[in-house]
Amino acid sequence: MHLEVNGEKGTLYWNAEAMNTLWCYTEEGPPHCQGFRRIDATDPAQPYAGTWWPAGHLLGYEHSFVHAVYELLQAMAEGRTPSPSFLDGVLAQAVSEAVVQSAECKRWVSVPEIGAEVN
Description:
The chain is α+β, with helices and mostly antiparallel strands and 119 residues long. It has 2 helices and 4 strands.
């Protein structure tokens, strides 16, 4: 099981067999340095990595929910909009619906523009 997202500025690739690794491709930088870059979720530089165990130890699916709840509570305590926000959820749903429609129609489908008024 894997997920690949291709866009105007690059590609993201994730595979469930290596769930702590994200591959990112952009055309930024000099041509001889372009290509896929490996992003390790357990690297100490990642924002939530220090919350768990030492680098190299795997994080699981369930940890993403802990991070989301933590971010929500932290944002509430600080009086700011959480990230991801409600708008982020609406945008993710719009993308998901466009993917399903694209698969059913067997053609490219545009994701509708959703403004900040949803917030």
